Amino acid sequence: MTYIEPILPLLLLLGFVDVARTWRRSDKRRRPWLQTFVIVGIAFVTTNVGAWVLARPLEHPYEHETFPNGDAEAIVVLAGGVNPPLPGRPYSLPAPDTYRRVQHGAWLFKYWKAVPILVCGGGRPDHPHSETMRRVLEAEGIPHDLIWTESRSNNTHENAVFGAEVLRAHNVSRVVLVVEANGMTRASRSFQKAGIAVVPSPTRYTQLSRSFRDVLPAWPALQSSGESIHELGGLAWYKLRGWI
User: Fold this and answer.
1) Pair 21, 126 in one domain
2) Which domain holds residue 164?
3) N or C: which end of the chain has fewer CB within 10 A?
4) pTM of the predicted model, to two decimals?
5) 15 — pLDDT class (breaks 50, 70, 90)
6) How far is the C-alpha of 1 from the C-alpha of 6, rounded, in Å?
């Protein structure tokens, strides 16, 4: 726990106190329904229970399997965040989500099947995300010639479109796809739309601790809820655009 984490439950507690006071002072025609909905909604999305509920529609199709449930000709790892170079640090660093995905891809190469790994991600032209990912893979001992890069994409749709071009150039039509479980539906459907068969291999699931902490507000739960809301909205947008 960091020093700032207790601020969230404290602010929510003050919000509930204010709502309770408003209810006591209001008459039947002017109940603070909207204020109550807002406070309860914020409390919900900041708990592990809320984050888990929001993630269920996205994650339930994917089982907790150690190895991919099927064969494939390549492993595809999509970029998340990448920290750009800074003064005094002239190289980029993968953000936690990207690092987690790349490590999972390297683990699959070592313990599942030694097939080529395609890393997809654009970003800055002089420091594409895919090159940062390549560097991590090479540090993990993955041979240089078995790492393919796609450096033009800036979103999941482009990951699939441009990544499929690289795969077809190598006569690959079936891949293991690496991304978090809550983002797997949008990512896998995007690649399928581009003509690539997908075997899912999620890197992370939203889980409950089965303790009282699951109902306490926390910043990590809020971040997880935000990711699921982003993915649910992204699915609707991609469907509307005809990308999935």
Assistant:
1) no
2) 74-200
3) N
4) 0.87
5) confident
6) 8
